[in-house]
Write a structure and sequence with these properties.
This protein is mainly alpha-helical. The protein is built from seven helices and two strands; from the N terminus they run H-H-H-H-H-E-E-H-H. The chain has helices at about 10-20, 25-45, 50-60, 65-75, 80-90, 110-135, 140-150; strands at about 95-100, 100-110. A two-stranded antiparallel sheet has the order 1-2. Strand 1 and strand 2 (about 100-110) form a beta hairpin. Helix 2 packs across helix 6 (about 110-135) and helix 3 (about 50-60) packs across helix 6. The longest helix has 22 residues, at about 110-135. The radius of gyration is 20 Å and the shape is globular. The N and C termini lie far apart (about 40 Å). The model has no long low-confidence stretch (mean pLDDT about 90).
Length: about 160
């Protein structure tokens, strides 16, 4: 052990272990990272990450194409969403433009190349999802997402 470094007190080690075991925030992030890594590996051949695939699917699935609506649906803040969209835009997969009727608003949609890439990725995603479902219940993940929605507006 390095000079000056101290071993954590036994009670701190015990409390930290209990925190790691019980913390919904830590465990849900850990699960999300592991699931994301699993899906990223499965989607590597189509050139998308799981996050990019999900974002493109959100864009394709719903009629309200404004960035504000997309941010609400994805649970991303505007700056994170914009950063992720710029990557997709640079790849020619999405287009972002100002809404003519309200110049303060911006809209996003898939380009033709983006729609083709999403269509090509869906079979790889389905195969990965089937393998994933043998280990992690898709219903459990959906219920967690739905239940956590109430936290968005919960008081501090």
């Amino acid at each position: 052990m390095m000079e000056g470094a101290r071993q954590p007190r036994k009670t701190l080690r015990k409390d930290a272990s209990a925190l790691v075991a019980a913390c919904a925030g830590w465990n849900s992030r850990l699960a999300a990272r592991r699931i994301g890594q699993f899906l990223d590996r499965a989607l590597a051949d189509v050139g998308l990450t799981a996050a990019q695939l999900g974002l493109m699917a959100q864009i394709a699935a719903l009629a309200d194409d404004t960035l504000g609506a997309l941010a609400r649906r994805t649970g991303l803040d505007q700056s994170t969403l914009s950063r992720n969209l710029r990557t997709l835009e640079a790849a020619g997969l999405v287009e972002i433009a100002t809404v003519e009727r309200d110049l303060r608003r911006r809209a996003v949609w898939l380009t033709e190349a983006g729609a083709r890439r999403l269509e090509a990725a869906i079979p790889a995603w389905r195969q990965a999802q089937a393998r994933l479902a043998k280990r992690v219940s898709p219903e459990l993940a959906r219920r967690l997402a739905e239940a956590s929605e109430a936290l968005v507006s919960a008081p501090r």
